[in-house]
């Protein structure tokens, strides 16, 4: 079967670079939050960065004075973060978050970390950085309250200087309280806890202001590119300092391709100075296929001593939206073939290892997708690093609501006090990522029917985006713009690029009425009409499908924990409808067969009726007596021939609208095969075989080698097959997993949106013949022996090698 050419080797190389980024914490950049560790940098840096993920004590309950240094937490659970305690369950239809929160628990939790610092570190400034805490977090150091952040999706930092103890036996206690007990607070599953990474950063009193470094490429020629580096230096010492600042740019292979002359500056105590430097480097571009990432290394020198260094990955590229021709990347006109994606990932909840995101993005890329919408909130910084490396374009979205609530306890309660702060911190964090091509100020905002409220808010948001990053356009996912009069009252024209959810015809009409408008589908259905709007209109820059992958929450009723809305399911397996999209989006020859069993009408949050095909990729119908089956074949080839048990059922030529090839086939057990041809040459094949009696479990894995770091996992798929290896599509056996050797289970899953089995378990029922286990390594060497058993079936087994993360270069 050849649905798409394999990119396994490239993904493997990128995967190890991604893991190295996490493992080598010395290379984490203070302004970039998660800088590329593969650059050839000195082994010792002036800025000390230590992962603070390990050895937290946790209790899922409220505790009076939980921040107190002397509190006895010896009986609390010991764990590492990132940690999502809500995903641990149990599922209960009476949980206050209801179906929106996948019927998983909410409430108050406490985390406490005990740590010591050497006397030699007492002259340094100390910061703690949180990539994300869900939600309403309060943070204390040694009983001193550092601050509160209500929005669980933003990254933030606090300075610890002046509140720390130094020396042997002098302990420090960092305490975090999270509270999402007031429900409902979200329209989907949001998780709970310190669900992203944490770091301790130690710097000299004279240092780069965190997140102040901004690398732009204002001029890009055929051979050279001008690189502009803006940063801010602050002097937190008690005396004036004269220092020199320079910037070195490293090429993707890690070698220097340019360096500025040292710029001398004098900074008074308590003051800061902006520094701007320019240099010219070879124009090696970042694009979707060659994700060339450069690194800007800024240093502060005091004579021969380096006081601070800041490492910022960036890409050299141009990205532009044009009113008449849509989106352009590096002078090439392309369509945004995007998917909307939530921040949770199957049984892992919202604490998602980088390798799991790689698994998901690989599934999207195989379908031809080139863009991600972060629906509807900021994502983890390492996810953006991954999009930089994998070649995805990103719509970086901030809010799902403004001042008008969608739920009683959602962000609307905090919007007026916090939105500009959260927006600023996110843009400063994200603006060096070449993958990001636009920011979104909101999704389906319910303020917009009131222009007296909405227009001043949007003006302030757009201004804040532009102030912190003038290089990227701002959009908004508009809900029913004609009904809200967004095109009439001026709201839509405050946006640099206008995004419309589901109302493609309204967006196109608005552009025709005012041709200077730049438009795209910020949220689109999966049917042919939605794709035709993009394909047949040059001005329509692209679309983001709702939804790329199934996600937890937004369930309509118990026991549903999700809905079958995605191109891919909770375990990243593509549904047949995904292959229709692949036939439109992919440049690689592909063909895929499915049994078409009709369509159902569905709705969406914009109230636009949609249809969803009911299809299954098997030749094992429940009715085994003679009957007719409607067969659909998806392919981007010129011609497809269908055969049953070696007998041709005829060939069909590709239609101009790209719709699927259809046959009516009288069912006979055996093999249904499709051959796709271009110019008479076979370019892709697919086949479905009738399954017999279930006989055994077959195991497969996406990665046969694992590093013992939190961000590395392997997906092990258990498939129930007959004696000939054909999957039994209705098998639902209870599969029990066992691991021997240096490994453990992170989660189990089966993609059943109505299953309330626990994700943290040693067993899982198969769903449509398949279930999945997500495995971690616990050591850097040895063999992980993984087995799967079920009564009456031959045991499946597989071996995974535990190994250290490969060094990069």
Structure description:
This protein is mainly β. Helices cover 13% and strands 37% of the residues. The strands form ten sheets. The chain has an eight-stranded parallel barrel, surrounded by four helices. A six-stranded antiparallel beta sheet has the order 3-2-4-9-6-7, with no helix packed on it. Strands 14, 15, 16, 18 and 19 form a five-stranded antiparallel beta sheet that branches. The relative contact order is 0.10.
Keywords:
8-stranded parallel beta barrel; mainly beta; disordered N terminus; globular; 809 residues; 9 helices; 6-stranded antiparallel sheet
Give the termini distance in whole angstroms. Answer: 35 Å
Rg over CA atoms: 27 Å
Largest sheet: 8 strands, parallel, barrel
C-alpha geometry: globular
Structural class: mainly beta
Kindly state the number of beta strands.
Answer: 47
> Which regions contain 5 or more consecutive residues with pLDDT less than 50?
1-16, 20-39
Query: Helical stretch count?
Result: 9
Please state the average pLDDT score.
Answer: 93
Q: Approximately how much beta-strand content do the residues carry?
A: 35-45%
Give the fraction of residues assigned to helices.
Answer: 10-25%
Strand order of the largest sheet: 23-24-25-26-27-28-29-30
Summed up, what is this model?
By secondary structure, the chain is mainly beta.
Record the SSE blueprint.
Layout: H1 8-23, E1 48-51, E2 56-59, E3 77-79, E4 108-116, E5 125-130, E6 137-141, E7 144-149, E8 156-159, E9 171-179, E10 198-203, E11 206-208, E12 214-220, E13 224-235, E14 241-250, E15 256-259, E16 263-267, E17 272-282, E18 294-302, E19 305-314, E20 319-322, E21 326-329, E22 332-334, E23 336-341, H2 354-366, E24 371-374, H3 381-390, E25 393-397, H4 415-430, E26 436-443, H5 451-468, E27 474-478, H6 481-484, E28 498-501, H7 504-513, E29 519-524, H8 528-535, E30 540-545, H9 576-585, E31 591-602, E32 610-616, E33 628-635, E34 639-644, E35 647-653, E36 661-666, E37 671-678, E38 681-689, E39 696-701, E40 705-706, E41 714-721, E42 734-740, E43 743-749, E44 763-765, E45 770-777, E46 783-789, E47 796-802
Parallel strand pairs: 23-24, 23-30, 24-25, 25-26, 26-27, 27-28, 28-29, 29-30, 40-47
Antiparallel strand pairs: 1-10, 2-3, 2-4, 4-9, 5-8, 5-10, 6-7, 6-9, 11-13, 12-13, 13-17, 14-15, 14-16, 14-18, 18-19, 20-21, 21-22, 31-32, 31-33, 33-36, 34-35, 34-37, 37-38, 39-41, 41-45, 42-44, 42-46, 43-45, 46-47
Helix pairs in contact: 1-2, 2-3, 4-5
